[in-house]
Design brief:
245 residues; alpha/beta; Rossmann fold; 2 domains; four-stranded parallel sheet; 46% helix; oxidoreductase activity; (Fe-S)-binding protein; Cys_rich_dom
């Protein structure tokens, strides 16, 4: 298979180390990875702000960049969900449907497509998982706690393969961090209070690191941790799965 590596714009600009870890991890798993250099924003910020009608050029460019690959993989649940739900091409909707069906968030690609059962990784720290809303409720990366159903967690499944890593249990394992894209700008006070609650759950239960498939959530919580002068750090799950320290 050949995978097109989709790196969201904020990851590219602010967290390139997560993008590099994603690339290296896929290469370690013998995946042929190509990075289309002309890719830009998928259009999610505009769509979330009520301007989806202005995102067509983003859609067209995404299709141009990624239509030829067997799979499209990204280290961002929210951007993947946006593409899966909102990528359209009025002049060739069948092509858009085909592209949407090939887009995967990194964790679901590792578990559902590659079916990884072993990783050569080591991360000797206590880690708390933040289940992002888009990953949890949109991509179903884990079971929602309010459902009376068997629990599962694709991120936890992979993290259990990492040597010397200890997962910490949280009191509210799937609570929103309050980021919500442009919500954190429009409703700043509510967003910050939600973020503080989410961070405190991790701190109280002994996490040294908070990880997630969504760097946007981690970015929000990182700011709160920094202002609290906390020693707890955030790290994208790709960096843990790729770590050998």
């Amino acid at each position: 298979m050949t995978v097109g590596l989709f790196i969201p714009c904020y990851v590219n600009q602010l967290y390139p180390q997560a993008a590099i870890a994603t690339l290296e991890l896929l290469q370690k798993l013998n995946v042929d990875v190509v990075y289309p250099s002309k890719q830009t924003c998928c259009g999610q910020p505009m769509a979330n702000s009520g301007f989806e009608h202005l995102t067509q050029k983003c859609n067209d460019l995404f299709i141009e960049n990624f239509a030829s690959f067997d799979y499209i993989v990204a280290p961002s649940a929210s951007c993947v969900l946006h593409v899966k739900d909102h990528l359209h091409a009025p002049e060739n909707e069948q092509l858009a449907v085909s592209v949407r069906s090939k887009v995967y968030e990194l964790v679901e690609f590792l578990t559902d497509i590659l079916k990884v059962e072993k990783l050569n990784a080591r991360f000797p720290h206590k880690v708390g998982i933040h289940q992002s809303c888009h990953g949890l409720r949109g991509l179903h990366l884990a079971q929602m706690s309010e459902l009376n159903a068997a629990p599962f967690s694709k991120p936890a499944h992979l993290l259990h393969m990492v040597q010397d890593l200890e997962l910490v249990s949280l009191e509210r394992p799937d609570e929103c961090c309050g980021f919500g894209g442009t919500f954190c700008i429009a409703e700043e006070a509510v967003s910050v209070k939600m973020g503080k609650d989410r961070v405190n759950d991790h701190i109280k239960n002994g996490a040294e690191y908070i990880t997630s498939p969504d760097l946007s959530c981690l970015m929000h919580m990182e700011g709160i941790l920094h202002r609290k002068r906390s020693k707890v750090k955030v790290v994208h799950i790709a960096q843990i799965l790729n770590s050998t320290r």
